[in-house]
Amino acid sequence: MDNCILGELIRTYREQAGLTKEEVAGDFCSVSTLTRIENGEEIPGRLLAEELCTSLGLVAPNTNGGLLSREEAERSVIEWRIKRKIERKEFDYEDLLEEYRECGETNSFERQIHDLYLSLLLRHKGTDDSELFSLYTESISLTLFSRTEAFLPKRNLLSKTELLLLRQIAVMQHRMGRKDDAIAIIDYLDRYYERGICLESVISIEYPKVLRFVAEWKIEKGDADSALDAAERGFVQCAKFGSLYPFVHLVKARADGLAIKKSASADRERAFADFMWSQVYR
Fold first, then answer.
1. Cβ(162)–Cβ(140) below 8 Å
2. CA angle, residues 252, 258, 260, in degrees to nearest 5
């Protein structure tokens, strides 16, 4: 797909969604840059093309026809190698991260990708939550300028990487005792995925996880009705996308919610939740 067609595609989907150039450009790029891309006058880098497309619910095109620089191509290969290691639960890729950094100057999107991979490595090493929180917040601050001090976004479109970083920030906030801030972000993500404006490949991985945290954290607040609602919606998403681990947590949250409401089925649900937990985490 060449740049002219990519730009036309972005403009078409933007107009069909009733979005202005300012809304789509957001913090990703300037409005003038987006205008040049839509007019086929500028070739976006690999990650900018991906983030613009993902925010509109588009599958990013194959980055050929001049869309990839040599440095971007090298980083793309390194990302693939890191992903393979993570899939095999091999957290010994410090050398690959160093190679990633040495592929020339990194832009904000590349830095965020690097930080996400680094955070997985640090978590595996048992790094303190406060250090991880600093990493996530510094990383998302590279692009998410329109936000509150608690990192609640003030714009309607987010990139895939920003969505991942936001969930991690919410988890760190919750662990650090900032539970109201954490719930505000996770509720935001719930509404964002409910709108279905990003790629299904992103929704399939992230939405069941988000609904798990919504259900669990509402239980902690004693809000059984909201927790049960999140659990039911989570079951639908887990069934649709085959998400096992969030499903187990959602079953447990539903059992806790029914117990709070003193439902007659609470004991049965608890037994089922305990059975599922023992099978998955044995």
1. yes
2. 105
CB 264 within 8 A of CB 258: no
Distances (CA, A) of 272 to 13, 178, 248, 249: 45, 32, 10, 12
Whether the model pTM is above 0.85: no
Below-70 pLDDT ranges, the chain: 1-5, 58-69, 73, 282
SS3 content of the chain, % helix, strand, coil (to 5): 70, 0, 30
Q: Evaluate whether 234 touches 208 at the Cβ level (below 8 Å).
A: yes
**Cα-only R_g, the chain:** 20
SS (H, E, C) 89-120: CCCCCHHHHHHHHCCCCCCHHHHHHHHHHHHH
Q: What is the pLDDT of residues 38-87, one digit of tens each?
A: 888 887 877 788 788 877 776 665 554 445 567 776 887 888 899 889 99
Question: CA angle, corner 188, sides to 185 and 194, nearest 5?
Answer: 145
Per-residue pLDDT at 115: 96
Which residue type does 110 have?
E
> How many Cα atoms are found within 13 Å in the side-chain-facing hemisphere of 242?
1
Record the tokens describing residue 187, joined without a space. Answer: 């509720």
Token pair recorded at residue 167: 């969930």
DSSP for 260-282, please give it.
Answer: HTT-TTHHHHHHHHHHHHHHH--
Cα dihedral angle (203, 209, 211, 214), rounded to 10 degrees? -140
